[in-house]
Structures are given as C-alpha cells and as structure tokens.
Design a protein that fits this description.
Elements lengths: L1 H28 L5 H7 L8 H16 L3 H14 L2 H16 L4 H17 L3 H15 L5 H18 L2 H15 L4 H17 L3 H18 L5 H14 L3 H17 L3 H17 L3 H18 L8 H12 L3 H21 L1 H4 L8 H5 L5 H39 L12 H5 L3 H16 L10 H7 L4 H11 L4 H19 L8 H8 L4 H12 L3 H17 L1
Pfam family, one: HTH_18
Keywords: Membrane, Signal, Transmembrane, Transmembrane helix
Organism: Flavobacterium flabelliforme
C-alpha cells in the first residue's frame, strides 16, 4: 500500500515540475531556437525523456506558429518516438495530416510509412500494409532509392506476417541486393528475413545458406547484433529437416539472449520448436514445459502467431491422455480464444493452418459451441453465395449464347481462288476444282457419314490428303476435325430450329443423326461450338416457341 502512495506522489510531483519547466522553457528559452536546433538535439536515446519531449513540443509549436507543415510533420515524428503507445497513433494521424498539407511527395510517403510502422507495432497488420502500399505509391515517384527499398522491406515484413511467403521472398531478395552496398544493418536484417521466407516455402538448404552468410557477413562488418537471430533461424530450420537434437541445441543456446532483448515473438518461437522437437521424438514430458510457455506468453500478451497454435493441440492431446478433464477443457477454451484472435488478423493463414486436432468433439463439451457453428454457418453461406453467383452468371451467359445462336446465320462459302493458290503451291485450276467439289460435299451433307476423316474426304474430293488438308485450312480456316465437326453441329442446329420433331430427340439420337460415333463426343462438340448444351438449347427453343404462340 505504501508503495502505491509513493508512486502516486511521484507522478503528481513529476507533472507539476514538468508543467513549470515546460511553461518556462517554451516561453523563454526555446521560442527563438531554430528548426535545426530541435532536430539536432533530439537524439531518441530513450522514450519519455523530459527534455527531448519538451524540444519536440517546442518544435511543433514553432511549426504551427509559422504554418510550416513540413517542420510540423518532422516534429510529430519525433513525438511519436518519444511518447507512449496510447499517444503514438494520435500523433501519427496528426503527422499525416500535416504532411498532406505539403507538396512534398517524399515527405507524404514517409509519413504514410511511419504510420504503418506504428500500426504494425500495435498489431494492426492489415492497416499497416494498406499504409505501406500508399507510401509506396508516393515514394516510388521519388529518386530516394534508400526510402524506396525501406518501403519494400516493411511491405515484405507484413506479407511474411500474413503468410504471403512467395511475395515476401521476392521483395526481400531485392532488399538484400540493394542494402548490401548501402546499409550493413538493413542488409543483415534483409538476409535474416529472406532466410525465414525460404524456411516457410520449404527451401531448407537455401535457408541454411542464408543463415551462414548472415553470420559470416556480421563478423566481417564487426556487427554481432543479428548473429543470435541467424542461429535462431537455423535452429527452426533444423527442426523442419528432422534434426531435432541440433534444433534443440541451437535454440537453447540463444534463448537467454532473446529473453534479455525482451524479444517476445522469437522467445515463444524458440520455446515452441524446442518443445515440438521433443514431442516429435515422443519425449512428451520434456516437451511439456516448453509448450506451457506458449500459453503463459499468450495469457500475458494476448498475442500469438498462427504456427504457435499447434502447441495447444499438443497440450489438449496430452491432458486427454492423462484423463485430466479440467486442464483438457481449459486448453480447448483457450484454443478457441486463440483461433478467434487469429481469425481477426490472419484470415489468409487461418484457412491454410492444418488442424490435426478434432476440436468438434470437445466443442460439444463446453459453452462456446455457438461460436464454432457461427464460423461454419458463415463459411456455408459464403460457399452458397458463391455457388448462387456462379449459377446466375451461367444462366445469363447461356441466355446470351442462346440468343446469339438463334440469330446466327448458316455459314456460306465463296469460291475465290485468286493468288491464294500460289501460297499453297498448288495449281489454281486444281484448287478451283477441289473447292467446287468441297462445296458439293457440303451441300450434299456427306459430312454426316460416321467416321468421316481426312482420307475419306480426300477420296470424295478426288485429290490427295495433302491438298485436301491445305485447301480446307486456307479456305475454311479450320483443321479437318474441326471442319467436319462444325458442319455436323451446324446441321443439327438448323434441324432443331426448323423441325419440331427433333427437339424431343435424346442426345443419343441427335448424335446418330449428325453422324457422331458417340453421344459423349456429340455433346462435347455441341458445347464447344455453341457454349451451351444441346439439352439446354432444345429447352429454350421450346420455351421461345410457346411464348410466340401465347402472343
């Protein structure tokens, strides 16, 4: 209780001292300072620094007083870094408003990117990606290549986070190439992220290669900050290659460093893959403490990555085998909470997660069953909506195709030899003769014979197969099979249009009438030629005739 009162007293004294100092310094000491002074004296060494916040607020006041929107934008950026999480989004919105009041596309793009970074830190990943994409539209029009690739990097991070691994891989590859010569830390970060992507898309050897490169490049730069993260990445990579002992060794080695860095995400990831390595070796007792760490972290942070949800499946299975119903149902309930959270931010990944555990049985044993069925109903309704949309689309498409077919006139051929015979390298007289016989072939409907082929057609045209093939290709613009098939189908179409009796024929009878060898070949050819089935065509024909009679 005494500690509580001391904290309250300290807060009150802090605000009083800060207010007095603020009023004094802004009015007397800082009002005449230059923008360069404020920019140079804010070093971003620690958040909630009284002096630096005071400089940033004075910078903002000067910018507002002089209506200098560019300087206002920069001062808001400073306040974002120097403020707590509650104020960051507010300052980000104000920064963006100020930036948009300028004509500086680089500044506007940079403001959108900054807001995206804040949203990413606040776990608003979809919104962050939207702002990164807007930032890219502005920054891509500038000559600031460093900023261009910085946008690529943050977009790639969100794409990786949301499960678009192939797209993220391509962007990180570009960043690695660019930052290698421009910025050592950005280069190492890009290498690390690229390695993670290679792991996610199953290119484990490339992931290992990238991790080795990252470690050696860090040594060359004398920058060891990223070394633990390349080891961490390789530990996860070794798990996927079933090298469980090596995975445990590497991840255990770097855990103290990750914990010391307060890196919550990589800490829980290390726990998960250590636990999973033991679990896959059937060492469930050894795996248990690490899997329990996942739930411990979730309860504290209310944040989890999709791949970590499998830990709950292991815990449910374990306590089910131990016949511990209390803990079994506790982890079922928590898994539902996890899935609900993931569904909000990982819609893409949620559909891809392989859920080996059959939650349906356990859902029936606790109060949240309605939530499960709500998701199912939504999915069913979505599928039904899509199916209805497809059926409606097909309906109107078929109506349109039927109308076009009714208005289609039978194809007519013209005998026009001209210079085309020279292209065929055939005597013009021969071409003319063959074309006349071809027209006779069409008028006499010889094409209705079954099993008509190039050899039979050439014989009917009193020529060889080479000439027959060339002339039909040139003057009918079709291959032999297509030419014969289209003649058969067009014949049936005209019969159906003109003679009622054929409309009651089954497809088999229509196929025989057209000279097809099988009903299947006929229906396929009809659909290819018209876009609709013969049954649909007959039905619509009968409807149209009925409508005409009623008129």
């Amino acid at each position: 209780m005494m500690k509580k009162y001391l904290i309250i007293l300290w807060v009150c004294l802090f605000h009083n001292a800060y207010a007095q100092q603020n009023n004094l310094l802004i009015s007397d000491s800082l009002s005449g300072k230059t923008y360069e002074f404020f920019s140079n004296n804010i070093r971003y060494e620690e958040k909630d620094s009284i002096n630096e916040r005071l400089y940033a607020q004075s910078w903002l006041a000067k910018g507002k007083r002089e209506k200098n929107f560019g300087q206002m934008t920069q001062s808001y950026k400073a306040l974002i870094y120097l403020s707590d999480n509650k104020l960051q989004l507010k300052y980000a919105d104000s920064m963006l408003t100020a930036a948009r009041s300028t004509a500086d596309i680089e500044l506007i793009g940079s403001a959108y990117m900054t807001k995206g970074i804040i949203q990413y830190d606040h776990k608003e990943h979809r919104k962050a990606l939207d702002n990164y994409l807007i930032a890219d539209e502005y920054i891509s029009k500038t000559d600031n290549h460093y900023l261009i690739y910085k946008v690529k990097y943050v977009i790639a991070q969100v794409k990786y986070h949301l499960g678009f691994y192939d797209e993220a891989t391509a962007l990180f590859q570009e960043c690695v190439k660019y930052f290698k010569k421009k910025n050592e830390r950005a280069y190492l970060n890009s290498l690390h992220s690229l390695g993670l992507c290679y792991n996610r898309i199953g290119k484990y050897q490339l992931c290992s290669q990238i991790n080795r490169t990252g470690i050696s490049e860090g040594l060359r730069f004398k920058n060891l900050e990223m070394q633990p993260y390349f080891i961490h990445s390789e530990g996860v990579n070794q798990y996927f290659q079933h090298n469980y002992t090596d995975a445990i060794k590497k991840l255990t080695k770097i855990l103290p460093i990750v914990i010391d860095n307060k890196d919550f995400i990589n800490e829980t990831t290390a726990y998960f893959y250590i636990g999973k390595s033991y679990w896959d070796q059937k060492l469930h007792i050894k795996a248990l403490p690490y899997l329990l760490k996942i739930d411990e972290a979730f309860q504290k942070q209310k944040y989890i990555r999709p791949h970590l949800r499998e830990a709950y499946e292991f815990l449910i299975d374990y306590y089910q085998q131990q016949n511990d119903k209390t803990l079994e149902l506790y982890y079922v309930k928590t898994l539902l909470e996890v899935d609900k959270l993931l569904l909000q931010d990982y819609k893409y990944l949620t559909g891809k997660i392989h859920k080996e555990y059959d939650t349906k049985k356990l859902l029936q044993r606790q109060r949240n069953i309605e939530q499960y069925w709500t998701v199912i109903i939504c999915l069913v309704m979505t599928v039904m909506t899509v199916l209805i949309a497809i059926l409606v689309y097909r309906h109107y498409k078929n109506k349109r195709l039927f109308k076009e077919l009714m208005n289609r006139k039978p194809e007519t051929s013209k005998l026009c030899v001209g210079s085309a015979s020279k292209e065929l390298d055939i005597n013009p007289d021969v071409v003319a003769t063959i074309l006349k016989k071809l027209e006779k072939f069409e008028h006499s409907k010889k094409y209705l014979e079954k099993e008509i082929n190039l050899l039979k057609l050439a014989s009917l045209l009193n020529t060889n197969t080479k000439y027959a093939y060339k002339i039909i290709a040139k003057y009918r613009n079709k291959g032999i099979i297509e030419y014969i098939t289209d003649l058969k189908i067009d014949h049936i179409i005209e019969l159906l249009k003109s003679e009622n009796k054929y409309r009651i024929y089954k497809n088999k009878s229509l196929a025989d009438e057209a000279g097809f060898g099988s009903t299947q070949n006929f229906t396929r050819a009809f659909k290819t030629r018209t876009g609709i089935s013969p049954s649909y065509f007959c039905t619509e024909l009968n409807k149209s005739l009925t409508a005409d009679i009623l008129k």
